[in-house]
Design brief:
By secondary structure, the chain is α+β, with helices and mostly antiparallel strands. Helix content is 42%, strand content 22%.
Amino acid sequence: MEAGHGRAGGSREDGSDAGQVVFDSTDLETTEEFLIKHYAPLRIGSATGRSGARITRVAGGAVSADEVALTFDMNYHVEPLGKICLCDVRSGTIARHRAADWREPGTFGPGELFSFAQPDQPYEGSARSASYTITMLDPALLNQVVGGEEQVRLLDHRPVDALVAGNLRMVIDHVRDGVLATPGAAASPLLVGAATRYLAAAVLDAFPTTAPTGPTAEDSRDAHPRTVRRAVAFIEANAERDLSAAEIAAAAHVTPRAIQLAFRRHLGTTPTAYLRRVRLDAARAELAAAEPGSTTVTAVAMRWGYSRPGVFSTHYREAYGETPSRTLRGR
């Protein structure tokens, strides 16, 4: 389908914050250029010749999150994105949507969350005066969570049920609003990395996938104390880095499932929880060594992977029996 020509109109694209862009236009060609820049080669069209689009985009690491509001019926034909692309419809309709490997087109209305297409598949359809969010993530993030050399793929374009869809929606909101749209959080590699893998884990939970479902007999054999010692040494030497479960497992020469089993079996915790405690210890040392007025609890918390100071304070009090602000002021 060919792109139509919208009526002349103003457009605006603000990008003062490198991680956030606001686009507002009533010109179809300008809208198409923006979408090509931020998505993939595509064509859009308007049966009436009218157009109007407002898009607020935040991005960080291997994830982007857009809020889209259209005041016209937009036909689209999009080439493969190379990414997992999730659409959550708020109003209007996504109609006659079809990916290249779908048998039949689908129509989606308010409250429906679905995956547009496999990362290597083109798709087409019509957004009819629709308001929706678009969340895109690199498929490699799924493997950072579960490991394995073969790329994990989604087996269906709909979540398995409404409960997991609702949880995924809450995770998307947190990643978008609590991390990517927050300047201090968005500037922290630890926060962005943890948030994007949190999103990937929610996707794995919400959709049927090709990911392994549990530890194998080999994983159980690998879950021995030597595995834990290798993983602990790697975590303690690299706590300031953005570490994934798959990277920790690789350093211990086992699968992510084996490393999870080993930590639970021998330490009664998880690799992620152990990493968090190591980072908490580092944050405590930084607070204790800081000169008066040289830093804040919020800055230290974000530097060590906490986007919410309240959560940091709760974990800190549980671990050390005092507030981080008291440590910062000195005893």
